[in-house]
Amino acid sequence: MNAFRRLVVLVLAAWWLGCGVAHAEKRVALVIGNSAYKTVPRLTNPVNDAQLVAAMFKSAGFDVVTTKLDVTIVGMRMALREFGAHVRDADVAVVYYAGHGIELDGTNYLIPTDAILESDTDVLDEAFPLDRVLFAVEPAKQLRLIILDACRDNPFAKAMKRTIASRGLGRGLAKVEPNSPNTMIAFAAKAGSTASDGDSKDSPFATALVEHLPKPGLDLRKAFGFVRDDVLKTTNYQQEPYVYGSLGGDDVPIVPSRPIVAAPQPSPQQNDIRRDYELAIQLGTRDGWNAFLAQYPEGFYANLAKGQLNKIAAEEARTAAAEKARLAEEEKARLAALGAQKAEQEKAAAAAKAAEEARLAADKAKQIAQARTEAAEQQRKAAELVALQAPADRQAVEKTSELTAVKAIDMPPATENQKVAALPPQVESSPSQVDLPKALQMELRRVGCLATNADGTWNNASQHSLALFNKYAGTKFDATLASQDALEGIKAKPSRVCPLICDHGYKREDDRCVKITCSAGSVLNGDNECERQAKPGQPSATSKEKSTQSKSANYGNGAAIPEEGSSAVAAAAGGGCSYDACLARCHRNTGPGSTVCTPHCSAIVRNFALYHKCEP
User: Fold this and answer.
1) pLDDT tens-digit series, residues 226-249
2) pTM
3) Which domains does the chain have, with CATH numbers?
4) How would DSSP label each residue in 297-314?
């Protein structure tokens, strides 16, 4: 019955929204941007501004958005004629123009790109009167809006010949008072002043328009007030947009407010189930949850109750394992006190060890069950919170939470002999088998155990880096395989595990390598130490013993360089990585006594020991 009621409410809501869209007001817009004038310098912003404003009208859901760029006088006439056909049955009509404009004897004109305007009389023939634009938007039923970003400093007026000396050519555009009601004309700058193109791709006026005009339900007069404030602040109070005309007392937004649909309220039965579930949580016993499931065997809260039962079962198993381990320890101590035979003591010790392992496994199984239950409980609380804050979305959230709870609870509990990895701080999806080696390599790099890049190939270097992690972290992961257990174990380490190894010329300081700087008269030797610079012909003070210590220090990870003649050196030499052979080869190439050979060969031998690759 509840599902049927919800279905009916959703169908009615969808029908109401569909009717609202069907009967929504029709909004049309014409956007013109002129930049490429033929007789005066090109304007940078108008075309960009026009495209920006047109995109704003389209995203606001206008039914018709016509964009014209770099239009001639004939093109402007055709654009107004075509736009007039759309306006006849429209509720809202908007015209945006960006480019040059001129005022002649109190009349404003828009200047097309092919205008020459050698004299003042040419304005009447080559420019487009603003009154023609007002005439085109007049049929709109609710709102007529004209936005003019045409108050720029006019280069035509400077070279224009005047047939009558007293004829006025204004700076910017003249003030306009529309005669039709519900008509507004917005200037980028107050009448008689000029507008700025700004330093960016779009003008300050256009940038502010697209920020505030499309806000749903925002009254047009308030929106232009916000535009004015933004432009004043951007231009350091040099440019002030202005609006002429008037509207009625009701709010007139460009984008209407979104309708609010009342969502169905939860049924009384759902409230009863939730109340009983909360009482069962307070009781927290197996009998309480069994009683709840007997009353409500199916549904979202039933799945949560099953999870609570799994949690109780895990706790009981943990308690039993702990008691078994305690009894085994007591039996071991009793046999030892009585001087029992060695075989009996070993048997008792083995039984105690097995019981302790079972107790640890039960502890981990309990932790897993508790984590699953807490995750399901968080989903429940989130679903109830969303139901209170946004009733319209409650059903979708309950469905998602129910699927999550079922998935968490249906997972089989861990057995006593199951090896359980450390619990992660939150439930998250495991990486795929293809991504597991790369994820493990990235974690090994994070804890300082892997120096190579994470390429997803589990090679010798990766295996050795996991072995190093086992050594310094005290773990026993199989280094030959990239396993999920190893990944979780490494993720549990918050910081570096393997010791930091610095290249020649750098020393370890805290948890980073810092470049070694020698004082004046000293140089950095092959042992990574500063020593007095030897005079020409005088041998260095570095002894063979010191060199051997340097080899051991550069070998890395606390391992010593093998002595000459040992099996390790022979193996290295077999791989082309003998320290002495490297020195001899380096001295032949760079000259006897070269200072670069010692660190170079130390790195060669160290890399071979770590990664079995004879590369620096």
Assistant:
1) 999 999 999 999 999 999 988 888
2) 0.43
3) 26-246 (3.40.50.1460), 268-409 (no CATH), 436-491 (no CATH), 506-611 (no CATH)
4) -SSHHHHHHHHHHHHHHH
